[in-house]
Amino acid sequence: MRELTLEPLPPNVDYSQFSQRLEWAKKRIDALENHRIYNILKNSDESFKQVFCLLPLLLQYNHPLLPAYVENSPKGISHFTLTTIQQEYLLRILGSAEFSKVISDHSFFSSSAAFDGLYVMGSIGSITQTCFSDLDLWLCHSKTFSAQEQFLLQCKLDLIKQWAATLGVEVNFFLMNPQQFKSKTYHNDIGDEHNGSAQHFFLLDEFYRSAIRLAGKRILWLHIEKQGLNYQTLVEQAVENRELNAKDWIDFGDFSALSIGEFFGASLWQLYKGIRSPYKSVIKILLLESYAQTYPETDLISKRFKKLLLSPTGICYHFDPYQAMLEQVTIYLSRQNAFGRLSFLRHCFYIKANEGQTDPCRQKALKQLVNEWHWSDKEVHILNNRRHWKVKQVAAQQKKIVEQLLLSYRNLLQFARKFQIDPNIMPQDADFLMRQLYSAFEHAQGKVELINEKAISNLSEENITFINVGEGSSVKAGWYMLNHAPFAEYDSTKRYVLYQPNLIMSVAWAYFNGLITSTSQIHLVNQGVELPKLCRFINDLRLSFPLKAPKLCRHALDHPNEIRNLVVAINLTRDPTKHINTVTNADIEQLDLFNLSSSKEGVIGSISIIYRNMWNEIITRHFENTNALLKALKLISNKIYLSSAPPQSVKVFSYSERLNDELQQFVFNLVNRCITVKTGTIFQRYQPAVVRMAGKEWQLVFNQQQTLTEIIEDPIDKTNNIIPQEIYTFASEGFLQFFFEDNDNATFNVYVLDKDNKVECYYYCQGKKEDKIKTVSRLYAEGLKNKEQNAFGSFNFPQFYQLLHQDRQLFIVPFQSKQHRDFLKEQTNTRAC
């Protein structure tokens, strides 16, 4: 990339004078922004150039002939001036007469502009800008918009995004109010793009090191050198001395209030972003690690950039935010002697910068880096052909990514424990991120590990082979999957793609990761399962589950990870009915299905379960032998939460040689009844059924308060009638959950559900709930360090909820969520009246 050369301070400029220093800083910042815009537009296609250049115009002016017109929408950017490109576009679209009317209209250049400025930030203009890069835009405003204005503005921004999308450019807007930002007032819940309260100063660091002003006011912090005084004092003195008009600038403040409490939320945010942008997140979370090493004198890249920009000496530097991240993390890892991590960092950086790269200058810069790293041609060739990797390469790469992300997370947790920090992140944002991370990274029994769809678009295989190795073999017993047809000789310990203890887990992994398609040829090497049955099962699975899961919304994460889609397979791997003699229909009507065979094995030898839950996890369980059905029903009952919505789909398939339809209908009825009772659709109104299976009598009990099991055991002690029953609808197995309920005397009750859904109650508590939440979170994090199974961190952190009493009804919402804040605001307004 072309470096920016800045001349030294001219002799006629008195650097000790604030006003002269400020004017000189403007020239240098202008030079930097022009340099970056040149890098952005050079070798970009015409569609991208059009979007980039016209975005400020569409926010400056509302006209029916212009894209994204919304009547009465807020408009106008302070200090806006038309560029040549914008002027030519207006002339072409409006015609000369209308254009003359527009530019003579006072409102076009009105001082009462709705917006302070428009700035683009992120990878745009850096070495990592590619044809896939989107435009992240901060649209800043000091004005407070009414609800109607907010609605109209959001409509306009949505239309601008749609217009840009038609030209092949993804645009993301972030409405930023400087005063609210400085006071840490958050109006947006955390989501795909909004980081909520997860990070504040690290977001500001990214903005300051990469922001490019497209229109509007200049960024004050970039222009102000401390000169022995703290930033705020210097600004106030300059305003008082009339050397600075604060209304002409955008000011998000400095980093004097940066605390270690932000590292925890920022690390969670980068892990979350790693689900969608893994290579970028590896770089950024390592940057956080490097920042932690220099705390409290945190060596922020934005500070270094500003120091260089405002230095009175001449300078020649790239001012590339991504190259600066690479340089800083390289120094950090080298000092740690972590050369394996450094090598992988370079892989991530190269993939991030290379894919979709069409700019010759950036390609040349990457080649220069590769030469400095002493990579072989083979190493470069492998990375350049990543889109053609097979599943073993992709899975190995994903494993490395996850290991690196979690290792950084663990190191940042240790840093947090060292200083005994209280996280700055708000509880509802932490809950959201933790559940997302739990869904993506947490290992659980029977959970299918999904390959990140961002890693590669197509993993389909022409041939898939499942091989069963029995006990007593020289290799581990279980099921091995190959991504080719079986050969006469092969080494299963080296050539297999996947090992699983049972067939169901192997098939689910292959299907949900896209290896098995409708055209794949399936092969089977074993002595038990029949190939036609397996092919039927795979086809049933394909018809029952969409390969791509629905988008995971926040509402789903506010609820337990209940079953969304369920498939039950009968006698797929073990079928005792093939040993039954022929039975006529007349005989079937008079016989108990559980006692058709004199064998102790009965008629159900195996039950396989696959389900997708509300958090988009794929879970498999496989049961064999005499009590397979009972265990399966118990599992289903435990995963259907009280008063929750029933699953969207329930499919039961039988692969029995005999009694196929009868077993399918029988098990379907049992599963359906289990679900309808637990969800409250129907209630138990008759005596429990007693059935005989494999020489034993079993009592099947379905109850809204109890699970289905041999010996019914209530998972939650409900002897205390004071406990609000509504909290059980939020009970999530594996999580520690706290439910706060306010009392009239300024105290509050706390109901705690442990990981096994046992309940404890604490009444009339005093103090601040926020303080108790911070204490619980810190103690929980500290408790992980002695647990070997949590060597890389765990994401089943405590969850916090608030009980709201409104209109004689009880609602439960995440603590400090938007619903909670709106409720408190309404209560305050009611008391004021």
Automatic annotation (TrEMBL):
According to its UniProt entry, one GO biological process term is: cAMP biosynthetic process
What name appears for this protein in its UniProt entry? Adenylate cyclase
Per the UniProt record, the lineage of the source organism begins with: Bacteria, Pseudomonadati, Pseudomonadota, Gammaproteobacteria, Pasteurellales
Q: Which residues form the Adenylate cyclase class-I N-terminal domain?
A: 23-221
> GO molecular function, one example?
adenylate cyclase activity
